[in-house]
Design goal:
The chain has a five-stranded parallel sheet, sandwiched between helices. The chain is α/β, with parallel strands linked by helices.
Length: 152
């Protein structure tokens, strides 16, 4: 197994699943950078989606795994950052396709909508599936062409 550096972040609704996945990744030998939230107190998912994206864009990790109640909001926030390709996945096949066809660098999961065992399988599929390149490379380049202004 190749050790990966993984950023994890969540809002309060994704906190429990983030904690489980983070612990699992650490036990598997991966280096996990947990940038919050660190409890169940209500917070805003965009704050943590933006934090995770900014940290990733510094070059500190191979992947980001982000969590909110549905996975939708935090993925939308992360995707506002040029260079982030966050994919909301709900099964093993979408996790593999996100990597192999879309070169996704962030996996979004919904803490209120996915079972823990399936989430673990999605994470493993995501971080262990390589990008196919080839015909998909030009498509990924088209995604990355769009520059999005960021707010601070």
């Amino acid at each position: 197994m190749v050790t990966k550096k993984i950023i994890i972040a969540s809002d309060h609704a994704g906190y429990n699943l983030k904690k489980i996945i983070g612990d699992e990744m650490s036990k598997s030998g991966h280096k996990v950078l947990d940038i919050g939230t660190n409890n169940l107190d209500p917070v805003d998912y965009p704050d943590f989606g933006h934090l995770a994206a900014k940290e990733y864009l510094k070059g500190t990790a191979n992947f980001g795994i982000i969590f909110c109640g549905s996975g939708l909001g935090i993925s939308m926030a992360a995707n506002k950052h040029n260079g982030i390709r966050a994919a909301l996945c709900y099964d093993i096949e979408t996790a593999k396709l996100a990597r192999s066809h879309n070169d996704a660098n962030f996996l979004a999961l919904g803490g209120r909508v996915i079972e823990v065992d399936l989430a673990k399988k999605c994470v493993n599929a995501f971080i262990n599936t390589p990008f196919d390149g080839g015909r998909h490379l030009n498509r990924v380049k088209k995604i990355d062409l769009m520059k999005i202004e960021r707010f601070e």
